[in-house]
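ok so for the tutorial part 2 we go from a plain amino acid sequence to predicted structure tokens. step 1 is just haveing the sequence, like this:
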Amino acid sequence: MQKLLGTMRRAITDFNMIEEGDHIAVGVSGGKDSLALAAALSAYRRFSPQKFTLSAVRIDMGFADTDQSQALKLQNYIEQELGLYYSVVKTDIAEILFEARKEENPCSLCSKMRRGALNNQAKEIGANKIALGHHADDVIQTFFLSLFYEGRLSTFAPTAYMDRSEMGLIRPFIYVWEKDLKGVVNRLELPVLKNPCPADKHTQREYVNGMIKTVSKEIPFIRERVLGAIKHPERNNLWPELKLDK
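step 2 — the prediction. this is what the tokens look like for a chain of 246 residues:
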């Protein structure tokens, strides 16, 4: 956990993610990344130079086969072990996506709907910032997804501000590698909630992740190089904008 906290603290400092008096709502899906983030921010709060309030929010998508015993273990861990205020928002997102609309590629719409529900609940409990568990591997995967499927050189930002909901967004794990998160989750035996989504492991992101793993066998440092290029835009050497005649 110490290594994880040190890496997270560097990101928080580099991008001024946490300010005095913040109320941060951690979006806890139940997966390893968001659960580790809740645990890490809870530990960080003890020595943070800024005093802030921390809460946890889970968006229940309404899957009938969600393991309720796992969900209860997750709740007990967050409330009793971490000592955080924990709220669960019941939704019918699963029914809308897979029964009403029968979406073949549901991830984008699902993300928007979950984010909307998370924003509303964060505002309801008085939070001014939302923390998400995206890590360094997610940064790289998003970069390649944007390049391959949208023709853009883009990825998500470490911090953002959503004008419509007047809510800040922070990603304290952007320097943390997924393998390090897995190690912490396993050592601490965190109560991960199994994802019942039928699209899990069958997405464009999973395809890109597999591609990166394959290339890494020949170029072991590919992840570090791509993240370095993203962190240092001054290294970019792209074409100038074309001045087309109107």
